[in-house]
Write a structure and sequence with these properties.
Blueprint: H1 4-18, E1 23-28, H2 31-41, E2 46-51, H3 59-76, E3 82-84, H4 89-96, H5 107-124, E4 130-133, H6 143-152, E5 158-159, H7 169-180
Parallel strand pairs: 1-2, 1-4, 2-3, 4-5
Helix pairs in contact: 2-7, 4-5, 5-6
Bound molecules: iron/sulfur cluster (SF4).
Length: 195
């Protein structure tokens, strides 16, 4: 078993010692999950947020989550830029084919993590020093899979392994979401997760 949280701490320590604030592209699924991640990263890295979530198949919900993260950044971290990826739900339906009835944390989710991380890695290539995702905050996500996928991607940017739920990261995201009055959705994102 790889201890990704330890790997994260080692990289953070090294980057703090170098004190250069390298550029990090942070894939974000929503405002609440971004709170803890940004709190832990923004002192060490120059963070850019990337909202790429074609898995949010309901367009109204997609727009709502995007609006929420945008206003959260404007209010709390005005220095952090936000890039919006495409709303290409067709890509999500392609990777979900024949996996519609899989449970959360099953094979469909593996493909969904990969879709979002691949896009992030491609965007980070030659423009950022690191890339990472907020997805490891959620207790409903398989962080080992996320980190394995991230580390397997070929790009000039280094994948930053994370496990944001460690050290009460999830609890902290609830505190911060309450503090800033953020909308916390009650399902993951795709139509299948509403069940
Ligand atoms: S449940 Fe969540 S992670 Fe799994 S496929 Fe649906 S949106 Fe993606």
């Amino acid at each position: 078993m790889i201890n990704y949280f330890q790997k994260f701490n080692e990289i953070i320590k090294k980057e703090k010692e170098e004190g250069k604030k390298k550029k990090l592209l942070l894939h974000a699924c929503c405002a609440p999950c971004s709170t803890t991640a940004i709190e832990r990263l923004s002192d060490v890295f120059s963070v850019t947020v990337f909202f790429y979530n074609p898995n949010i198949t309901d367009e109204k919900e997609y727009d709502y989550r995007l609006k929420e993260i945008s206003s959260f950044l404007e209010k709390v971290y005005p220095e952090i830029p936000l890039f919006e990826g495409e709303f290409e739900t067709d890509k999500f339906y392609q990777i979900s084919k024949d996996l519609e009835s899989e449970p959360e944390r099953g094979k469909r989710c593996y493909n969904c993590y990969k879709l979002r991380l691949e896009k992030t890695a491609n965007l980070a290539d030659k423009k950022f020093d690191y890339f990472a995702t907020t997805l490891t905050l959620s207790p409903h996500k398989n962080s080992d899979w996320l980190n394995e996928i991230g580390e397997s991607l070929k790009t000039s940017a280094i994948y930053l392994p994370t496990d944001f739920k460690k050290q009460d990261g999830y609890k902290r995201s609830i505190e911060l979401s309450n503090k800033y009055g953020l909308y916390r959705q009650n399902y993951c994102g795709c139509e299948f997760s509403k069940r």
